[in-house]
Amino acid sequence: MLIAVTAVTVRSDAAGLGEQRPKREFEFVRLLYTDPGAWEFRDCSCSVDWPEAEFFFGRGVSRLTRIEVDGESRLLSLDDDAIFNFPWLYAVEVGHWRLTDYEVERLREYLLRGGFLMVDDFHGSDEWLGFADSMSRVFPDRPMVDIADASEILHVVYDVDERIQVPGIVALENGRTWEDDGVVPTWRGIYDDQGRLMVVINHNMDLGDAWEHADTPGYPQEMTTLALHFAVNYVIYAMTH
Fold first, then answer.
1. Which domain holds residue 99?
2. 104 contacts 134 by C-beta, under 8 angstroms
3. 227 within a domain of the structure (yes/no)
4. Residue 132 falls within a domain, yes or no?
5. What are 102-147's pLDDT values in tens digits?
6. What is the 8-class DSSP label of residue 148?
7. pLDDT at residue number 71
8. Strand 145-146 and strand 186-191: pairing?
9. Is the peptide bond before 140 cis (omega within 30 degrees of 0)?
10. Please, are residues 112 and 85 in contact by the beta-carbon 8 Å criterion?
11. How far from 40 is each of 13, 43, 208, 239, CA to CA, in Å?
12. Does the N-terminal peptide bond of residue 22 adopt cis geometry, omega within 30 degrees of 0?
């Protein structure tokens, strides 16, 4: 199935949105966030699977849709006004993020103005608490709820009816699909007042690894296929809502 859409820009009343603007209909933007244990980008949990995950993600979305996907990923932090030029952000290992008050304010603004955030590759109860601590400051009045089977985001292009755990390759090589105590995968979200999904939360799974290892012998094809179906649905949803 080939899908054609028109990209949207996140609404903003701020002057000077930064010099970075989309070159194609869709650009993969990886969110840079505060990680107390990091001294530089490569030390940051936010850099995991970069840039290979983006590369294979872009190839997959280009093949499965008519969206013009830029082959290069962008790295943007929440203090960069350019984030308002892009409707889709991706953040990994969010169990380790510790958002500052300013980052909390900016992420709330971005999402309420029409932005979409996908979080991925965090596992177990401890990392959930680390993620939830910051996210509850972003939206203290909005719950993180399970995404229902009938939700539009699971059917906007592909009908994702079987939600199996998509593992990281290291866990898979060790003969399991989970990490830490994250045995049960969950798909949760945060909605705005109009019922639009602003944040999609992939907990106890690693879609980024499934994209990255699309060509790796031994990584199950059905899991890569499922991860790409999620990717296409998320992108189409973010660009049309």
1. 29-240
2. yes
3. yes
4. yes
5. 999 999 999 999 999 999 999 999 999 999 999 999 999 999 999 9
6. P
7. 67
8. antiparallel
9. no
10. no
11. 32, 5, 21, 31
12. no
Q: Return the percent helix, strand and coil in the chain, to nearest 5.
A: 35, 15, 50
Residue 39 lies in a domain: yes
Neighbouring residues of 211: CB distance < 8 A, sequence distance ≥ 6: 49, 53, 56, 57, 60, 224, 227, 228, 231
Q: How far apart are CA 234 and CA 239, in angstroms?
A: 9
Residue 24 lies in a domain: no
Amino acid symbol at 167: P
The alpha carbon torsion through 55, 159, 203, 236 (nearest 10 deg) reads 50
Give the closest residue to 149 by CA, choosing from 178, 189, 209.
Answer: 189
Phi, psi of 189 (to 5 degrees): -155, 170
Distance of CA 179 to the CA centre of its chain: 19
DSSP 205: B
Count how many domains the chain has.
Answer: 1
pLDDT band for position 163 (50/70/90)?
confident
Dihedral angle over CA of 40, 41, 47, 53, nearest 10: -150
What token pair was written down for 14? Answer: 């701020």
What's the one-letter identity of residue 61?
V
Strand segments, DSSP code E, in the chain are 29-32, 74-77, 88-92, 116-122, 145-146, 186-191, 197-203
Angle at 79 between CA 73 and CA 85, to 5 degrees: 50
Domain with 116 in it: what CATH number? 3.40.50.12140
User: Measured between alpha carbons, how far is residue 91 from residues 114, 131, 196, 200 in Å?
Assistant: 17, 11, 19, 11
Checking if the pLDDT of 205 tops 50, the result is yes
